[in-house]
Write a structure and sequence with these properties.
471 residues; 6 strands; mainly alpha
């Protein structure tokens, strides 16, 4: 019996997402259905045999890599499966933690559908049709961010506008690039095509000055929803962008392009870290910290000739786990405390020390603190940036320092006693449904920080899908 990989990782999850959408009011069923589907698909992608064949008793399944659909083709090669495994695992842990109050009931089916659409975007041919699939995923995300029956927040409208504007720029750039390889290097059309492409990707990644919607959406929506989107879409867009470098020689061999990416990446790190340091709302600080992570992704691509693409991919799993822990705890704080302003969390650590420790460690992991998951990769990136240009390394360090400063401010507020509340003694008030996932995730972040190669090496196989970019 023959099947294709797109049926397994695109069509099947879309069908299950539709079933979960019909039963979205049945919370436990919806959580189990979507999370188990995502985990099973992640495990299959992780352990998929090189022979592309499965034998289960008398049944033998042979998989092909391509599926024709509406005159187009979706090809999910085995090289992409480690990354597909990651995004479905991410989908699974977000769905598993989505029973928290404040998370939209349609988050679970919609998140599974978005993951399937983004998976299809990785393999659609011609690859420019990925822009249409990514835009479809963005449109599908709006109901998760804006509760039904309420007017959408201005930040959500800005998010929709700027993300949608990216699509025509990407399509126009693709149309222009289709003819530039036959032109001489000094042709102005080459520069124009690259600028239009850069503008489209900048809109998708919320690069300064198109970033203003990020803190607004994070402040107005549930952290689990916003963190899921702010991990998934930029990660897929980053991988999608590598297609252009892999396909077009003039882009791949342009030293100026890599220098521009390094500079923009450092600007995002420095600005994002500085804005994070002065925030008074933890959710807004979370939003600005994701801009720092976007900066590190751009810096990694800019350092491609020094092994940056390896760091780009190894950073993603650690980032996902840090985001999940930060978002899970923030949702709990908002549920218990009613607000995420620094002034409203004073003394919170005295009542909920486990949640407070987990929140601080999640932020420190994103900041690149030693012994935590993102430290090895960020240290390598900043070291390579400093070797490329001391100014880049210094500004990158300053940006990372901004996250440490915000964490220090938050720590002071969390432990500060509140005079009118008695008693002010320390106590553990968390229940098991809060303590167990937080402690497990903290342990995983520490283990990855200590042994990164043992846990992150598999995803590097994805680079083999970009034959011209292999380090």
């Amino acid at each position: 019996m023959s099947l294709s990989t797109p049926i397994l990782w695109v069509l099947l999850p879309l069908v299950i997402a539709l079933i979960a959408l019909v039963a979205f009011n049945r919370r436990v069923f919806s959580i189990l259905l979507t999370s188990l589907t995502a985990f099973i698909l992640s495990a299959l992608a992780y352990a998929f045999p090189e022979s592309m064949e499965f034998t289960i008793g008398p049944l033998s399944l042979t998989f092909t890599e391509s599926l024709g659909f509406l005159g187009r083709e979706i090809t999910l090669s085995r090289e992409l499966l480690p990354f597909i495994s990651l995004i479905y695992f991410v989908n699974g842990i977000w769905a598993l933690g989505s029973g928290i109050k404040g998370v939209s009931r349609i988050f679970r089916p919609t998140s599974l559908a978005i993951t399937a659409l983004l998976t299809a975007a990785l393999g659609v041919r011609p690859f420019l049709y990925a822009a249409l699939l990514i835009e479809t995923a963005i449109l599908a995300s709006i109901p998760m961010l804006s509760p039904l029956g309420k007017a959408p927040h201005p930040g959500i409208l800005r998010y929709l506008t700027l993300q949608t504007l990216a699509m025509p720029f990407i399509l126009l750039a693709g149309w222009l690039l289709s003819g530039v390889e036959a032109l001489p290097p000094e042709s102005p059309l080459i520069i124009q095509s690259a600028l239009i492409l850069g503008l489209g990707i900048s809109l998708w990644l919320a690069i300064f000055p198109f970033h203003s919607w990020v803190p607004m959406v994070f402040e107005s929506s549930n952290p689990l929803v916003t963190s899921f989107l702010q991990f998934m879409i930029p990660s897929v867009v980053a991988l999608f962008s590598l297609n252009f470098l892999n396909r077009y020689t003039f882009l791949r061999e342009s030293e100026g392009l890599y220098q521009i990416l390094q500079t923009i990446g450092i600007i995002m790190i420095a600005l994002g870290g500085s804005w994070t340091a002065v925030q008074k709302n933890i959710k807004r600080a979370f939003g600005f910290s994701t801009l720092v992570e976007t900066g590190f992704s751009l810096l990694a691509i800019g350092l491609a000739n020094q092994g940056g693409l390896v760091w780009l991919l190894t950073l993603m799993p650690a980032r996902a786990l840090s985001y999940w822990l930060w978002a899970f705890i923030l949702s709990r704080i908002e549920e218990r405390n009613g607000a995420t302003e620094l002034a409203h969390v004073e003394g919170f650590a005295r009542r909920f020390p486990i949640l407070s420790i987990g929140l601080l460690l999640a932020q420190l992991s994103v900041a690149g603190m030693p012994l935590l998951a993102e430290f090895p990769t960020k240290l390598s990136l900043l070291t390579a940036a400093f070797e490329s240009s001391p100014a880049l390394g210094i500004w990158g360090f300053i940006g990372s320092l901004g996250l440490f400063l915000f964490t220090l401010r938050l720590l002071i507020h969390l432990v500060r006693p509140v005079p009118e509340e008695e008693p002010n003694r320390w106590q553990i008030s968390e229940n098991r449904s809060e303590m167990i996932p937080v402690l497990m995730m903290v342990g995983i972040l520490i283990i990855i920080g200590l042994f990164p190669k043992a846990f992150l090496a598999n995803i590097l196989q994805t680079l083999t899908a970009f034959s011209q970019l292999n380090p």
